[in-house]
Design a protein that fits this description.
The structure is a homodimer of 153-residue chains. Chain A has helices at residues 12-20, 25-33, 39-46, 50-62, 84-87, 90-103; strands at residues 66-69, 79-82, 112-116, 128-129, 135-136, 141-145. Chain A is built from six helices and six strands; from the N terminus they run ααααββααββββ. With 153 residues, chain A is of the alpha+beta class. In chain A, strand 4 and strand 5 form a beta hairpin. A two-stranded antiparallel ribbon of chain A has the order 1-2. Chain A has a two-stranded antiparallel ribbon with strand order 4-5. Chain A is globular, with a radius of gyration of 19 Å. Chain A has two domains: 12-87, Winged helix-like DNA-binding domain superfamily/Winged helix DNA-binding domain (Arc Repressor Mutant, subunit A), CATH 1.10.10.10; 90-140, no CATH class. Helices cover 37% and strands 14% of the residues of chain A. The N and C termini of chain A lie far apart (42 Å). The longest helix of chain A is centred in the middle third of the chain and has 14 residues, at 90-103. The mean pLDDT of chain A is 91. Chains A and B meet through helix 1, helix 2, helix 6, strand 3 and strand 4 of A and helix 1, helix 2, helix 6, strand 3 and strand 4 of B. Strand 6 of chain A pairs antiparallel with strand 3 of chain B. Chain B binds a DNA duplex (30 and 30 nucleotides) through residues 1-4, 22-23, 38-40, 43, 48-54, 75-78.
DNA sequence: GCAATCAGGTTTAATAATGCAACCACGCGG
DNA sequence: CCGCGTGGTTGCATTATTAAACCTGATTGC
């Protein structure tokens, strides 16, 4: 069967999904962004098989989304923490959360809401703006080739 | 071995991933948001097996992210178009794209950039704001229980 | 100081999800 | 009535995911 790799795709959405588009990676990253760092913490929180967790952590480290650090409590073990590249996934988690908050069929089952720490009030929805500050929706944008193609002589 | 379902999870991120967190759904939604509507268009664009595509389209319709409409060119076939719930996924696609644009190891392989239709200039990065307009980053937010828990007498 | 326990995995064997290709049904053109 | 394009479904081989058993090195109990 071989799951088709998207790594060579030219679409940035596909390239991102190739890195963490599987069933567990984003949840591991979510846990990491909530401060979990130890193998056992992830395993207890997510309830996934340990071999899968080991495999996912390995590929996330390879992709430099996580890095291992020597320990924090003096024990001989290692911990997994987000790199800057990993922290960059934060908006994606927020977007996923906001979509569920808005469209989930059973919103009463959602346990938590995202609030700003200072005031304790819900955050605004993520929104897309043009460089000159206009609010953009799906119809207001378009795709452009990244660079003018060099025409062969 | 049954793939563990996340549908009953109380985390909205997990709930979203349960709906479209597989290998293909987000790419189908991306294509739909680019205007593709026919089975054959998706299949040609994504290069996935037809049975998988049929299965994904079915579950996306069940979840009301896509809906089938009778035809647009008069033929007897049906087309798949995004519902409002489906259009709500747009910010997630943008977030994925922007992450790749910022962190991909081979950005030269990315073919397109997102620009606003009116001016043709790249869009701003998605950003998270508090209700009173402060720019928030990962450290400025926290999770709060959705409702005050009713304490049993 | 020796057994028991725990963190952090690897190995094994079963089951479920892919992928590919072949097949089917329908409408249409000739 | 024969073939072709669209839109699927069905079988079967291959791969991924899973739970559970096992392993290793460090820490704790006594």
């Amino acid at each position: 069967m071989k799951r088709t790799s998207l790594a060579g795709d030219s679409c940035p959405v596909a390239r991102a999904l190739d890195v963490f588009g599987d069933w567990w990676s984003l949840l591991i990253i979510r846990d990491a962004s909530l401060g979990r760092r130890r193998f056992g913490e992830f395993q207890a929180s997510l309830g996934l098989a340990k071999n899968i967790l080991a495999s996912r952590l390995r590929t996330l480290v390879e992709h430099r989304i996580l890095k291992t650090v020597p320990a924090s409590d003096g024990s001989a073990y290692q911990e997994y923490v987000l790199t800057p590249k990993g922290h960059g996934i934060f908006p994606i988690l927020v977007a996923l959360r906001q979509w569920s908050e808005e469209f989930d069929e059973h919103p009463e089952e959602i346990a938590t809401i995202l609030v700003d720490r200072e005031k304790g009030k819900p955050v605004k929805k993520l929104a897309l703006y043009s460089q000159d500050g206009r609010l953009l929706n799906e119809a207001d944008i378009t795709l452009k080739p990244r660079k003018a193609r060099r025409v062969p002589a």
